[in-house]
Amino acid sequence: MKNILLGLLITLTFISCQSKNNAFSDFFSESQQDTLLTNIITYLYIPAPQATKQTKFQPQFRGFYAQNLLNFPVQKYYQSPDGWNYFFLIRPVASSPIYRRGVLGKFKLAPNSLMPTEFEEVANTPHLEEKIVKERGEYLFRELIKNGNLNKQIPMKQYIEWPDEHLAYDKKANEWKVIKPY
After folding, report:
1. Residue 153, CB half-sphere, CA atoms under 13 Å: how many?
2. Single pTM value for the model
3. How confident is the model at residue 20 (pLDDT cuts 50, 70, 90)?
4. Which carries the bigger pLDDT value, residue 95 or residue 156?
5. Around 138, how many Cα atoms within 13 Å sit in the side-chain half-sphere?
6. Residue 128 in contact with residue 99, Cβ under 8 Å?
7. pLDDT digits over 109-144, tens only?
């Protein structure tokens, strides 16, 4: 009887995990999605006009990041039991109206808040056509959730542009830093 119940529990767990499509809307209401995505964009994007890297989180600059919500569509999102939130989103490429970049990252949420803490951009894809970014990013997202990192995929330059031997993500400064000049 124990084996039957255990088998049933494992099967139900597998089915429930498979039924989720890792959509942002699986976890948050529309207004919560806007709030959280604005917070994520504040970490990822250039400082708002008149803002610096140190002041970009101040309330007077929030409108700049909120205006860019449509430019950063969340493709996949997952909350792990250990409190990490994983995301894959697509962002614009400043130098091209055709190409996009995928960003994969993770963070924890401050208690009773939609403010990320321990934020980390895990990887950025090269500049690619959006269709290719989606395909490669979904693969990377699955690997990120499964392993908690993309260490095995980092050498795949057609999938991951950063981190590499030249750039690493600085979690304290929340930005990519040159570790070895080109």
Report:
1. 24
2. 0.86
3. low
4. 156
5. 9
6. yes
7. 999 999 999 999 999 999 999 999 999 999 999 999
Q: Which amino acid is at 141?
A: F
Mean pLDDT of the chain: 90
Q: What phi, psi does 49 have (nearest 5°)?
A: -55, 135
Extract the tokens encoding 27. 């976890």
Q: What is the DSSP string of 126-168?
A: PSEEHHHHHHHHHHHHHHHHHHSS-TTTTT-TTT--BSSSSEE
Question: Among residues 61, 8, 66, which one has the least CA distance to residue 36?
Answer: 66
Q: What is the DSSP string of 113-135?
A: SS-EEEEEEEEEPPSEEHHHHHH
What six digits make up the tokens of 111?
């208690």
* Closest among 171, 12, 28, 100 to 163, alpha carbons compared: 171
In 43-115, where do the E strands start and end? 74-79, 85-93, 96-109
